[in-house]
Amino acid sequence: MARLQESLGVEGSIIVYNGAFEKARLRECAEFFPEFGDWVTAIETRLLDLLTPFRNFDFYHPDQLGSASTDNRHSVGCRART
Question: What pTM value is reported for the model?
C-alpha cells in the first residue's frame, strides 16, 4: 500500500476501468492496513472510471454486440486499427 500511495502521488486523476470494483478492492486493502484508511478515502474522489462512457453507450460500435465488456471493446478497437 505504501508503494501504491507513493506511485499515485497527491494530485491528478487515477484512471480505472470499473471504478466500483477498484474502490471495493481499495477498501478491502484498508481493512487489512488500517493506517491507509484515510488515504484510501481521499483518493476515491480522484478515480476516473473509463467504464462510464461504455456503460452509458456514449461510445458504441455495433461489433460490441450490446456489451460494455473489455473483450468486446478491445476486439473492436484492434479491428479499427488494422
Answer: 0.70
